[in-house]
Amino acid sequence: MSFRKYFTKQSIKDLLKEAKSSHQLERTLGPIQLVLLGLGAIVGAGIFVFAGSAAALHAGPAVVFSFVLGALACACAGLCYAELASMIPISGGAYTFAYAALGEIFAWIVAGMMMLICLFGAAAVAGGWSGYLVSLFADYGIHIPAQFCHNSGQVITLADGSIVHGVCNIPSLFIIMLITFILHRGTEASAMINAVIVAVKMIALSMFIVIGIFYINPENWVPFIPENTGKFGEFGLSGIIGGASMVLIAFAGFDVVATAAQETRDPQRNLPIGILGSLAISTIVYAMIAAVLTGIVKYDMLNVPQPVALAIETMHLPWFSKVIKVSAVIGLTSVMLALMYAAIRVFFTITNDGLLPKKLSKLNSRTHTPYYLTFGVGMTVALLTAVLPTSVLGQMSSFGIAATFATACLSTIVLRRTNPEIKREFKCPLSPIIPLCGIALFGSLMVVSLLNIYVYIALWLTFILSIYFGYSQHHSLLLNKKAKKK
What we know:
- By secondary structure, the chain is an all-alpha fold.
- Helices cover 68% and strands 1% of the residues.
């Protein structure tokens, strides 16, 4: 059979017919609502969990610049997402965009990268959630043995200098099981509850900045850019890129703004405001927190799942420590819920295209949720958090983000050439310059990630491609439809 079949594309006209067959959305969102929507989706695990590891392993105090670099890359991708979402206003995100622009094999790979974001990201957040919860329990005299709150095989040095090995991260397993049950029950988080959670996170982080300024030791910022170890991505200027590759997950969620194109008033004007505004505000907050964090605690001590809590313990403010830990536990719970829900949604879309068995998307007759997919996602996330350290999970998720967003930038360029006649509510300015800048920035972040986790990435790509060539290509509805026409 022809090798060209793997590059068969979904017809945009068919996708638009699918979009029109659904109810028309009312345009009610203005710039302020879009900025708040973006902040709600962005602020989460990146700063509570990964800022410390990025500083300790890659950038030192210069992790501030890592956040800025990550935001610049995401701004390029955000403008591309806005154009694509206004052009193809249906669910599926980057998977659907790649299917229309690049072909089925690329869409499948992008789906695999999106699973890195959702599955590995949720597992990484679960590790951070566990760290904050264990620390919070300790404040009340409840101590969970170290071997039961770290992943299997992890070497842990206790306060007395003794060494133990992790057996199982019980708190992580508990929260994953709880979220899986909630998703199976079909509970929908209301906008009001989400707004309260976002407010709690933003207030707590703002308090950390204001109070933490008075506990900064400037000596902890020296050297601000530590000398490179001789390995690319480990400190020095390249370490800033390495840090950006890890904290990229901090900006995951801005694409939610882009997908609201059909519900936005004057999208040509308001979408850029929503995307760039939410990215700018979150970047300023992140950079300030990173500066305070590395000013309070020496950067080489920050490779822990709960860096903000560690900094507050150094400040010796027990009451504030509890505030931060409670807000982190609440906020990270919502992040895990969103990531696991997104994974189920992407899998559901893939099964509808025939690339995975349709039986997986079978709905529960009472809750109307795809229970095979729901419990499958829960079990996968539980397994990942049990066997892989948080830093590796975070880097895997960030690699997925970089690959997905780079593909969105490439799809923008391709569709401008192949489908110039399709109406776009929003057009990415300075195209193809901005998409190309996005591809270059995300490409560099992917290279840095590969230097650290290339074995894991190779195993993941081998796994997803074996599924495609072993099952998906033979059951693809699009390929079978093309074959029948011939």
